[in-house]
Every structure is written in structure tokens, then in C-alpha cells.
Amino acid sequence: MVPSYDATAEDHNPALYWRGPAWFNMTWLVAEALDRLGRTGQADFLRGNIGKLAAEHDFPEYVDPWTGAAHGTRSFSWTAALALETTYQRSAL
């Protein structure tokens, strides 16, 4: 997953809301951009993580970008929608 904040910054913290966790929507956007740049392997890898982590942790709001530990609320509809989208995209390949 893609961290939401500079991972080299002193105040980076993957468990804090806007200081480093991975958001499913941002990871999806990066996967879309990678696809358009022809980096389909990297895009597919990110999409696989979206679906896996979403289902594994009951669709959390955000996760630790390195460990996948869930944070925030669960049953987050935005995460569920993106998990469905990425599962569909991967099955269409």
C-alpha cells in the first residue's frame, strides 16, 4: 500500500490519521496511474493488496502501509467499493 505522507519525515507515523497510513483510495489512484504508464505489474500488485487487506480486516478506513495493520473504523463503504472494483479489474485480466 502507498503511504500518505513522507516516510522519511520526522513526524511520520503510519498509525496517525494524516501522518503516514495508507488509504485505500489513494493506493487505488496510484494503481490507476501505474496502469496508464504501462507498469501493469506494479498496478496489479497494489490492487491485490487492496482486496486482500480490505477483506482480511473487515474493510478498514486505512492501514499501516508496511504491516497492513488496520486502523480507523471498520465496514468502511469506500474501502468496500474499492475492494470490489479491484477484484473485478483483476478478474478481467
Write a brief structural summary:
Helix content is 48%, strand content 6%.
Q: How would you describe what is shown here?
A:
The protein has 93 residues and is mainly α. The chain has one domain (22-91). Helices cover 48% and strands 6% of the residues. The chain is built from 3 helices and 3 strands, in the order βααββα. Strands 1-2-3 form a 3-stranded antiparallel beta sheet. Strand 2 (62-63) and strand 3 (70-71) form a beta hairpin. Helix 1 runs antiparallel to helix 2 and helix 2 crosses helix 3 (77-91).
Query: Globular, elongated, flat, extended or rod-shaped: what is the shape?
Result: globular
N-to-C CA distance: 21 Å
The helix count comes to: 3
Series of secondary-structure elements, N-terminal to C-terminal: EHHEEH
Computed Rg: 13 Å
Number of strands: 3
Helix content: 40-55%
The profile of the biggest β sheet is: 3 strands, antiparallel
Topology readout:
Elements (H helix, E strand, L loop, with lengths): L21 E2 H13 L3 H17 L5 E2 L6 E2 L5 H15 L2
Antiparallel strand pairs: 1-2, 2-3
Annotation keywords:
93 residues, mainly alpha, 3 helices, 3 strands, 48% helix
